[in-house]
TrEMBL record:
The keyword DNA-binding does not apply. Keywords: Membrane, Transmembrane, Transmembrane helix. Residues 3-130, 145-283 form the EamA domain. It comes from the Bacteria. The chain crosses the membrane at residues 6-23, 30-55, 61-82, 89-108, 114-132, 144-163, 169-195, 207-232, 238-259, 266-284. Belongs to the EamA transporter family. This is EamA family transporter. It comes from Streptomyces similanensis. SUPFAM superfamilies: Multidrug resistance efflux transporter EmrE (SSF103481). InterPro entries: EamA_dom (IPR000620), EmrE-like (IPR037185).
Amino acid sequence: MTAFFALATSLLWGLADFGGGLLTRRNPALTVVVVSQSIAALVLGVIVAATGAWGEAGPRLWFAVAAGLVGPVAMLSFYKALALGPMGVVSPLATLSVAVPIGVGLVLGERPGLLQVAGIAVAVGGVVLAGGPRLGGAAVQRRTIGLTLVAALGFGTVFALIAEASTTVPGLFLALFVQRVTNVAAGGAALYASARRGGEVLPPGGLRWAAVPAFAFVGLADVAANGTYAVAAQHGPVTVAAVLASLYPVVTALAARGFLSERLRAVQAAGAGLALLGTLLLATG
């Protein structure tokens, strides 16, 4: 069950990142975050009201609030790093986010077996290669590396926090709703501050209604990924769930290949193969 839900997480996050990347070509990144998360919050609000999940409110919701505050910082740092530096460096480096939940699992006493350790090493190496790392060319700015590390730390922290935010299905709905409301509040405040400084808030011509389904897909895929990750982490070792969930860059690369006809470099294809091998080792370990 852990492997299934963790792999579903990587699929959903990979597609959400792909969709978000397409939207940011025509819209400010912060606007994409706020609009997509607002749609997700509205849908979750309806689900929470329909299921009576309000009764699950408790101290654990503070983990959801914390995840909601950290998430926008991680997203914006990641987008900024992608704008400043080569994606072939930024994307693989961001997968260091897996170190946070793995560390939490080890602190909590999890001890993966030898086969799982091998699977973790192979899968993480595959994800790094799937990002298409550039081994030559101009040096990457320290600011780019710094922003990427901030994003990785933020993503990993969200992984760990959302796994602790609930213990029941209704509680998970409520936790995800609280997280998204906090996301919107924090992102909205940042967007307002950016507008006050003269920053771009809307694309030329304003937001198009035709783009609403795309915003909705990104927001809902992201929230669904948080949910499936929480389930995976609660029903199995966090170390395994975190590694399998971190395979989303492979999904993003394959989506770009399928929808945009972007060619996979040899190193990326090899990375995807290693990631699959690591997945099999983890699933059978």
